[in-house]
Amino acid sequence: MKLKNILIVVKDIEKSKQFYHDLFGLDVVLDQDGNMILTEGLVLQDEKIWKSFLKREIIPQNNSCELYFEEPDLEGFAERLERLYPDIHYVNRLMTHSWGQKVIRFYDLDGNLIEVGTPV
């Protein structure tokens, strides 16, 4: 068995597609009317579809998981994030952990937690 994809719920799939392309260079692999697979295995699913499956409300910024990316030029990434998405909600801006890794944490447009760090 192997893990195939990670699925996140989004309100506006087109805005989310642009967000993940702008910041992480992810492109569309497959678009199936409310389900979109991006490169690296990230799946965007329209909130209405997810709610119909679960029969429950979506809880943004629930802090129960995160998408983790590595980027050697974290300062450049932080500048791009601020320029393209100045209203983004940060958990922490660029910081350095005690072990030397630089990280930045923020929520995507739908409250999904993202961490970007320098390679470890």
Automatic annotation (TrEMBL):
<dbReference type="InterPro" id="IPR037523">
    <property type="entry name" value="VOC_core"/>
</dbReference>
<dbReference type="InterPro" id="IPR029068">
    <property type="entry name" value="Glyas_Bleomycin-R_OHBP_Dase"/>
</dbReference>
<dbReference type="InterPro" id="IPR025870">
    <property type="entry name" value="Glyoxalase-like_dom"/>
</dbReference>
<protein>
    <submittedName>
        <fullName>VOC family protein</fullName>
    </submittedName>
</protein>
<dbReference type="Pfam" id="PF12681">
    <property type="entry name" value="Glyoxalase_2"/>
</dbReference>
<feature type="domain" description="VOC">
    <location>
        <begin position="2"/>
        <end position="119"/>
    </location>
</feature>
